[in-house]
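Good morning C.,

I know you're traveling, so I'll keep this short. The sequence:
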Amino acid sequence: MRVFLTGATGFIGSRIIPELIAAGHQITGLARSDISAKILEALGAEVYRGTLDNPESLRNGAARADAVIHTAFDHDFTNFVANCEKDRRVIRILGDALKGSDRPLLITSGVGMGDAGEGQPATEQVFKPENINPRVASELEGARLLEEGVDVRVVRLPQVHDTRRQGLISSWVEIARQKGAVAYVDEGANRWSAAHVSDVAKLYVLVLNKGEKGKRYHAVAEEGVPARAIALAVSERLSLPLVSLTSEDAAAYFGWFALFSEMDLIASSAWTQSQLGWKPVGPGLIDDLANMRVE
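The tokens, ready to paste straight into the viewer:
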């Protein structure tokens, strides 16, 4: 199968390519620069030039493919709302290119979209269109394409990590470096679901090969790692003091990240594992934080 992969040189996409090749697929990867093109060639992928800022430039790449995996996202969280809208436009273009066929489109979302708001882990069966998180735009567009006959499948991500990057927690680490202390809010009892990037890459391939039209899949290895445990691991690795803040003080310390600092981002992947036989085996979040690279 010829797969068109966006975000192909990114943190997750670059790990998906060898998994796809091992499964017998051919990959055309999106590149926006000469450097990205060289990386793709080294990974064994064909190069397709385009950019998220010009979604129309992606149409031909999708049209020529047997399947599309969309992992690209602009991670400038200071412009989060605008970037979620950009993602919606990209999904529309990719989906339009696949209309009238049974070629699958795998889109990426966050596990928070499966939160029922009852204090239980987010699940694959839950989706609330009225979710206040701007990332809901991606799944809303996917749902519209599904109604138009496109084979849309959703992969929802927790905090995806290795020793170099840890999802949103990487921003938490950077703030700690700048402030000279690692902070959490109140008792740090809120939790973050997580998965190692190698396990996440394998799941995308399973969703491509064995997934079903209209289904949502959770790339979750750990349902909930307490915020204090995360902060403690960062504190010990960076040799910085550990401090607890009140909710009132969190905004001044965290800035834009304050929105996430108290969220309880727990999620389950029990259904995904039972449906696809996915068994995450990579290192846990705390292990990766304890061994994270310190420049």
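Safe travels,
E.
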